[in-house]
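Hi there,

I know you've been waiting on this one. I reran it after we fixed the sequence typo, so this is the corrected version. Both the input and the resulting structure follow.
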Amino acid sequence: MKDMSQTRQIRLADQELNSFQMPYSNLLQVQSGRVWLTVEGDAQDYWIGAGEQMQLPRGRKVVMEAAKGPARLVLTPLNSHFAQALPSPAAGFLKVAA
């Protein structure tokens, strides 16, 4: 199992799929490329591009795929105080896939 308690750099090749369980709330930041993302228990899918970010909830499985080229991402564990200050996806923080 991957250690999700440290900041991680993730590189995805075009159309590469990656999935993992979130033992901690994390901030996902897309440094380059475009990523399709779905979160267990969330009826919506998300498209996140370079310069965008999303808070990923603790205890959920996340599936992501690079779209139209490779993508570079940073996944940073959040402490509970900082995580409460971030808007949630349901609040319109991200664009929803059509």
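Quick highlight: Confidence is low (pLDDT under 50) at residues 80-98.

Best,
R. S.
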